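During the reporting period, we have paired protein sequences with backbone structure tokens. One record among many follows, to show the layout:
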Amino acid sequence: MKSQKESFAREPSQRNVFASACLFILSTAILMTPPTKAESKHHILQASISSNKSTFTTANIKQLTIFFELKNVTSKTVNPEIPATVLVIDDRVYRDSAWMFSNGPRDARFKALPPNDTLSFSYVLDDVIKTSGEHKIVWRGANQNDALLKISVKPDHK
């Protein structure tokens, strides 16, 4: 039969094992907790937009050309779903987004963008912005980050 002293001497190590097991279970539960909606937002396509100029006048705004670029940052071929993307101009969805993104020259990458490949295209938007001021253009899609472009339109002084 063990003495009380021997039994007491083993208790701290048993408590350490129990504490270690609890800590392991707790840390595993934390690691297995699903990410929040903000944390899980992972874009498989890196989007960017630019324009032929950053400053226009009301007389030459009809020359506005926007260049769109998507890069597949995954290791798999993905459908970039270009026709489902939208253009948001000054916080309002451009009414012809679906038509615009469904038209124009296409190659196979518009439906199957290989890993680490980039897809580039452009559109002339001659009827979109008609007023002077600072304008914000956002290209938005389900599998891509929002791409932001800011342009300035100055009044035309004759």
In short: The chain has three helices and eight strands.
